[in-house]
Design goal:
Blueprint lengths: L6 E4 L5 H12 L3 E6 L2 H13 L4 E5 L5 H15 L4 E4 L14 H29 L2 E6 L12 H21 L3 E8 L5 H4 L3 H4 L1 H5 L9 H12 L10 E4 L6
Parallel strand pairs: 1-2, 1-4, 2-3, 4-5, 5-6, 6-7
Helix pairs in contact: 1-9, 3-4, 4-5
The protein binds NADP nicotinamide-adenine-dinucleotide phosphate.
């Protein structure tokens, strides 16, 4: 088991790639903190993890509200006493074109996609540093690499998250490693909200693998980054996208 005895927070794990990662981390021996806004799905994920003989709790929190974000950290420490792995995966897709964006939508995208990740890292880092070891993983996007993969607020926040990932690696090392995963089209509720594979033909036809990825294919990349298998890798933006833009 690659994460035996570790405590892992996985935000946005009530569905999609976060859920697949929470289940995989638990199977690899981690105690997992599942988060999202939907309590029914959060409970379902925790029940599934427990039914496999593994350990998890859930915390209901809206990532646009920093008091609720702090609740994730507080509950983790109250329950498990420590934290070893922080996977900032929750994300909000903003589809509004630049010229029609309101301050409200712009600010919410920054809160959910960037500020929550910054704040959780700031809360968790002192504990990881004291232990001499910790891992942070952020879910960015191919839209964090190229503007033509999404509208302005999504593209901008994912680019910002890439910068934040490098700052985390630089400022929180040597104890903490921080990396980002840049998924391409992945078969989740978020992709369904834009019409599934058919809604993103450029991401399918524009990749040599000619298909969308599965949430489990992000989870296995996250496991690699969370475990000692990637012990000399930090500050990297790792694309898991079937080869788009090569
Ligand atoms: N699917 C893709 O093609 C794709 C591609 C590139 C990057 N991504 C990124 O991958 C990450 C995961 O998305 P996914 O594709 O797995 O989508 P998903 O299945 O829709 O999952 C999104 C998760 O984020 C949570 N979430 C969203 N907004 C939240 C908020 N305001 N507060 C708390 N939790 C919130 C959702 O929880 P609740 O619904 O319970 O609130 C859910 O658990 C996101 O950061 C996304 O930007 C996705």
């Amino acid at each position: 088991m690659k994460l035996k005895g570790k405590v892992a927070i996985v935000t946005g794990s009530t569905s999609g790639m976060g859920r697949a990662t929470a289940e995989l981390f638990a199977r690899e021996g981690a105690k997992v903190v599942v988060t999202g806004r939907n309590e029914e799905r959060a409970k379902e994920v925790v029940d599934k993890i427990k039914s496999e003989g593994n350990e998890a709790i859930y915390v209901i929190a809206d990532m646009s509200d920093m008091d609720e974000v702090k609740k994730i950290f507080d509950t983790t420490i109250e329950t498990y006493g420590t934290v070893d792995i922080l996977f900032n995966n929750a994300g909000m897709l903003s589809l509004t074109p630049l010229m029609e964006l309101s301050f409200e939508e712009w600010n919410k995208a920054f809160a959910v996609n960037v500020t929550a990740a910054f704040y959780l890292a700031q809360l968790c880092a002192p504990i990881m540093r004291e232990k001499g070891k910790g891992v942070i993983i952020n879910t960015s996007s191919v839209a964090g690499a190229h503007a033509h993969h999404g509208p302005a607020a999504y593209v901008t926040t994912k680019h910002a998250l890439n910068g934040l990932t490098k700052s985390m690696a630089w400022e929180l090392g040597p104890e903490i490693r921080a990396n980002a995963i840049l998924p391409g089209a992945i078969l989740t509720a978020m992709l369904n909200s834009v019409g599934g594979e058919a809604g993103v033909p450029h991401l399918i036809e524009g990749s040599p693998l000619k298909r969308a990825g599965k949430p489990e294919e992000i989870a296995s990349a996250a496991l690699f980054l969370a475990s000692d298998d990637s012990s000399f890798i930090t500050g990297q933006l790792i694309r898991v996208d079937g080869g788009i833009d090569i």
